[in-house]
Amino acid sequence: MKKPKNYILLIFSITILSLLTYGILFYFNFFQGFITIKDNTITSDLLPDSKFTSSYKSESNFSKMTVSEVSDVFISVLGTKLNTETILYKSQRYYIPLELICSTLNYSLSTESDSLIISNQDSNYIISNDECIIDGITYQLRGGIITQNNSNYISISDIEYIFNLIANFDFDNREVSLLLPSSYSNIPETQPSQGKIALIRLEDFSASDSMLLNINQLKFKAIGQFLNSQGMKFHIAWVPRYKCPSDNIDNDLLSNYSMNNVGFINLLDYLINKGGQVGLHGYDHQSEDQTSLNGIELSWKYHSSESETRQVIENSIDSAIALNIPYTFFESPHYRATCSQKKIVEEYFQYLYEPKNPLIYHKLYKDNENLYIPTPLSYVKNLDVSYIEKELSNPRPGELSSLYYHPTLELDFINIIPSNNTFEFEYCDNSPLQKIVKSIKANDYVTIHVTELINK
């Protein structure tokens, strides 16, 4: 009879020890104070220093990606179809002659040393080394400049930003129309310079069937324009490759050219230019016969070896670099990466946008020069944001106000209004995302990017 008693005592002791350990972690999880920003500066003992260097040197190189000519696409600007004999294609972007777009919009174009000068009576832009100086602020060109046959070509994405236009990709008629923006303010609302921080992440962004539709790409641009108009910084959890084995779909953006994919990368560029910061949400967010976004990519069961884990990470990085999509964080699909897999991720990324483990899910966790960023406010379930609103208005002590939202849920709240030369839309102010933004502003939060979480 002694053995059962000893066994029971052992189980009891382990249980007590586990509860005690959890209690200690729980205490430190909650009572370390809120992360705040003052005079636009974040200070906290929980933040890493700016010493991180990735161990990986990708062989991908955007500047060396193949450039080809496209003959079956038309470009129009404010209702006028451009007479261009050559449209270039590179890394899922279209390029047209810079001189042509300047003359169409009544700008002059000149060359000074190694710089291109774009000007009219009101504006003066300087392009040099794939950067554009606009009102004293440096803008990194999304597509860069391509020089071919003594002509300089600029991407549609950069035309959108520099000339304040919006591209509408009409896949049926093979036409890209550059339109005036909607009545939403193009000047972001100023955020408060101090307060508790908040983080927003748009989840599961991939070139799937729904995101390749013209109407949905326009709706996502409406979302970007809205967030920008409200002064909201946000994140995009991007899955570079979309697979649906049951339908024989494998949309690899590095090898599958289509106008729909060009529209998708243009959308990513647009959201980046509207305040979005992109992270890598796995490579294809699936395994075996699973469908991307639903499947699991990293876990004890899938891609569990060191070499397999590294392959997932490096494939995602290589895709981003080849497509010139800047990335700042990694998030394992469904937060299912094991401790050993996360240690490997730490070699490549300073920011892991997920909890360190199930016990540390309310606060930031620094591990040497890596930072784990959880989402304790969770996500929108069944279009109900009441829990998120409650946590924003009455946060638990020390809880990080961080959440994620599947933006496809927002599409039904947006209606694109047909217009000849202007991008117009109706956006229901009772949508989940609009409610979240209102709550963030009403409770004096300051939205930040993960890259601001660092000791400078």
UniProtKB/TrEMBL annotation:
<keyword id="KW-0472">Membrane</keyword>
<dbReference type="GO" id="GO:0005975">
    <property type="term" value="P:carbohydrate metabolic process"/>
</dbReference>
<dbReference type="Pfam" id="PF10096">
    <property type="entry name" value="DUF2334"/>
</dbReference>
<keyword id="KW-1133">Transmembrane helix</keyword>
<feature type="transmembrane region" description="Helical">
    <location>
        <begin position="7"/>
        <end position="28"/>
    </location>
</feature>
<protein>
    <recommendedName>
        <fullName>Copper amine oxidase-like N-terminal domain-containing protein</fullName>
    </recommendedName>
</protein>
<dbReference type="InterPro" id="IPR011330">
    <property type="entry name" value="Glyco_hydro/deAcase_b/a-brl"/>
</dbReference>
<dbReference type="InterPro" id="IPR018763">
    <property type="entry name" value="DUF2334"/>
</dbReference>
<keyword id="KW-0812">Transmembrane</keyword>
